[in-house]
Structure formats: C-alpha cells, structure tokens
Design a protein that fits this description.
Layout (H helix, E strand, L loop, with lengths): L3 H7 L1 H12 L7 H18 L11 E8 L5 E8 L3 H13 L1 H11 L7 E6 L2 H19 L7
Parallel strand pairs: 2-3
Antiparallel strand pairs: 1-2
Helix pairs in contact: 3-5
Length: 149
C-alpha cells in the first residue's frame, strides 16, 4: 500500500513544483505585472514632457521599464538622440526631479504604492542608429554607390 508521501512525490505536479523551485520561481507570473509596467511607461512618457529641469533637454525616449515583483522599485532606461552623454546628464536631472515625477505618477495611476523610480542611461537608440547606418553603407556598396555620399 502506498503512503500519501509516496503519492505526492510521484505526482507530476510535484515535479513541476520542484522545477519552478529550482529556477527560483515560486509563483506563475500574471498579466497584471505587464499591464502595470506598460501603464508606468506610458504615463512617464507624458510626465517627462512636463519636467522643467534644465538638465533634461533634447529628445529623450524611455527604452524599457522594469518593475520589481512587489512593485516597490521601477528601473527606467532612458536614451537620448543626442548621444549617451546627453542621456547621462538627463538621468541626473530626472533623478533630481524624481520626487515630482513620482507624485505625478501616483496622481495618474491607481496603485496602492507608487514605486521608487531609478533612472538608468541607455545607449540603445544611438546603437540602433549606428547599425542602421552600417546597413545602409553595405547596401550602397552592394549597389555600386559611394558610401560616403
């Protein structure tokens, strides 16, 4: 006769639980986290237009937003069309204005706790522009045109 412990150990659910426990996942991710992340990104895009800090200039873009599982911290990756140095200076200005930005975010979103905002400079837009330029040069070279034109 099988004991309840043997039945539990041999069940497929137990193996699935062990798999997720090994991977460090204790619960299945829901759709709410993705919705909250997108809402934060959308609202921050609108709020960035109202920031009047002189360090926050130029064409800024929110590349990515990562929110912790308990919604206590949000990492906001900022990129600038003017280059990585402009993104770094914008991050300093945004960090200085993070209290205002967080308050505005709390007024626009109905969350129990508004996450702490951490701004991080990212150069993915400049990197993407460099890759596009290289591909255009290769295309011109393949068609016999001068790539320096």
């Amino acid at each position: 006769m099988s004991s309840p412990l043997q039945i539990l150990v041999l069940s497929p659910i137990f193996f699935l639980f062990l798999f997720f426990l090994q991977k460090g996942v204790t619960k299945m991710p829901g759709h709410r986290m993705g919705r909250v992340t997108e809402d934060i990104k959308r609202e921050l895009t609108a709020i960035l237009r109202t920031v009047k800090d002189p360090a926050v200039t130029g064409m800024l873009s929110i590349v990515r937003c990562e929110v912790s599982s308990d919604l206590s911290v949000a990492k906001i990756f900022i990129s600038s069309m003017d280059g990585f140095d402009a993104a770094k200076s914008a991050v300093k200005g945004l960090t200085h204005a993070s209290g205002y930005i967080r308050r505005e975010l709390s007024l626009r979103l109905s969350l129990r706790h508004t996450p702490q905002l951490k701004f991080i400079a990212d150069d993915s837009i400049a990197h993407g522009a460099d890759i596009a330029r290289m591909l255009e040069d290769i295309s011109r070279r393949d068609h016999g045109e001068n790539p320096d034109q």
